[in-house]
Amino acid sequence: MLRPACDRLPLLQSPLAFLLVDLVTPWLDASRVAPFSARSLGWCVIGHYALTEPIYYVFHRWLHSPSVYHASHSHHHASTTTEAISGTSHPFWESVGYLANFSFPFLVPAWVGCFSYELVALYFVWFDVMNTIGHANFEVIPRWAQAGPLKYGLYTAAYHSLHHTKYKYNFCLFCPLWDYLGGTVHPTSQTLHAHVLSQPPRKLDCVFLGHGHYLHTMLHLPWLSPYLASSEHRLRWWMVPLYPLMLAWAAVCRYLLSTSVVQRYHYRGTQCATWCLPVTAHFYLMPSHYSAIRRMILQAAEDADAMGVRYLGLAALNKAEWINHGGKDLLAPLADRGIKVVHGNTLTAAAIFHCLLEHTSARDTIFLTGPTAKIGRALCLLLARRGNRVLMHTSAQDRYEAIRDEAGVTSAASRTLAFSALLAPTRTLAVSARLAPARTTGLFGTGTAG
Question: In CATH, what number is assigned to the domain containing residue 276?
Answer without folding.
Answer: 3.40.220
